[in-house]
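ok here's Chemotaxis protein, seq below lol
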Amino acid sequence: MSSGQASAEVRGVLLPLQEGQLLLPNAAVCEVVSYRTPDTPSTTVPDWLLGTFVWRNHALPLIAFERLLGRDAGEVGLRARVAVCNTLNGNDQLPYIGILLRSAPHLVRVTEAAIVPFAGEEPRHEMVASRVIINGVDAWIPDLDALESALSAFPL
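and the structure came out like this:
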């Protein structure tokens, strides 16, 4: 790239989990709200699906992403938040999902210079599109399509 060209930049958001961080485009996150205890699911669901809560007259599934990866989600602390995220497939029954966060997210500028692929060995998980290092921070990029498909299997 010549010095006269502007570097492509995407505004992103790092969503802090108990044991890591998710990286999403800022446009994928509608709002971050204070955590409130979700309603218990009426049917048997996996442990990563914590239940549902109401946001702007929509019942959203609340997920613990770490549990999807087989990791410990820890206890919900006083600083816990929920990232309300858009789904991608235009499903009227599931327009949003909630992701449990340890604390408030951080905005980041994602540029070619700021992001590199993770070089370590780790088994690939179907809910993770990629693992990267952004500005020195290890982060997972979730596969929102796969997550939405997995959620559609459970009536909420």
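fwiw The longest strand covers residues 9-17. kinda neat tbh
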